[in-house]
Amino acid sequence: MVALRKLLRLALLAWPIVLPPPLHAEELLYVAEGNRLRVLALGPHSSASPPLPEKVLIERASLDARQGRDVNGMICPLPGGSGHFIAGEDTGQPAVPGGWGIFDREGVQRAKLTATAFASQYPEPYGCAFDAEGRLFTSEIGDKGFGYDNGQLILWFPPAGGFGTGSVGYCKLAVDLGTPGGVAIDAEGRVYVAASSGLEILRFSPPFPSAPDAEGGCAARDASGAPLADPVQREVFAGAQWRSGLLTYSGLVFSPRGTLYAASVATGRIGEFDRDGRLLRLVLIPDEWLPPYRTGTPQGLALDSAGRLYYADLDLQWTDWSLRPGEDGKVWRIPIDERGDPGPPELLRRGLAFPDGLKVLPGRFEDLPPSREAGTRERRAERAR
User: Fold this and answer.
1) Nearest to 181 by CA among 281, 283, 298, 285
2) For the chain, what are the domain ranges?
3) What single DSSP character describes residue 366?
4) How many whole angstroms separate alpha carbon 292 and alpha carbon 346?
5) pTM
6) What angle do CA 343, 359, 167 make, to 5 degrees?
7) 27-384 maps to which CATH number?
8) How far apart are CA 31 and CA 74, in angstroms?
9) 49-70: per-residue pLDDT in tens?
């Protein structure tokens, strides 16, 4: 009996212990939609059910001439826990170049990052992700649609005081991507980019340039004269999955298990891939063959601290033989159990205009400033212009 107890103790010591991610007491869901940034209160441990309390943290510029900004795409908190964050910001285009705005926790813009681009109309910033060294990787969409491959992946070098405290150098890692969207970084520092019109997810591996000059590994120049990296290791992580319907990749986010969730916006699906790019399962499968899908068309993806998956739904509709965003954009939540198996999606919010990026961050709803959502008078004035 004593020998058996010793054997059991040794077995328990040898058994790998997998700890769940820490649960934040309260979390907030940031959603970029309609050129504004909306924040929804998810409640204790992100367990609240709709309708959820919400505020507009950043109103679009046409409705708020003083502090309004046109924001879109992914939302990325700055390293260090200041509460500041980065989001795509293209107020005043084409007269003012689009880029990535740096905002404080009150939603006030403090700085902006801009780079040259090749889109025929104007740049459209979308993706962002920080690596363990505090470097920022962003995607610029370029021209949308099949046949275009002038989207970009850009590496930004933080100044000594951090982003928002001084001039920021950059180096382009790629200028030939097909409508790049979501950006994600794994534990090894490899950068993943979803390219929807390229029908692929690309993976870029370090080492990356250390400065925007020849000594730092950024000796080349692109057609605009901007710094372009020396060759960086690049591969197709996942291509078109015709049998499963994963084609037009958009949002990306890593699960707590190290697998990669990837959305396919036009086909209404979300897949889960292992570290080698093998498809493990479909997390979201529409009942319909063609849009509109009852469960929507997922663009951006996010996770809460309990591992539940959120997606921004563009509500794509067939219009004049082309897919266009509808007027009923939505946000959904998918429960994920301890085995990684998904439950049915839960609708959290509808009636949104082109919701394309979202992020779950810890925070108390009561600590946010008053909502800046424009009133009826401002909306009438906007329609009259």
Assistant:
1) 298
2) 27-384
3) G
4) 17
5) 0.92
6) 155
7) 2.120.10.30
8) 9
9) 899 999 999 999 999 999 999 9
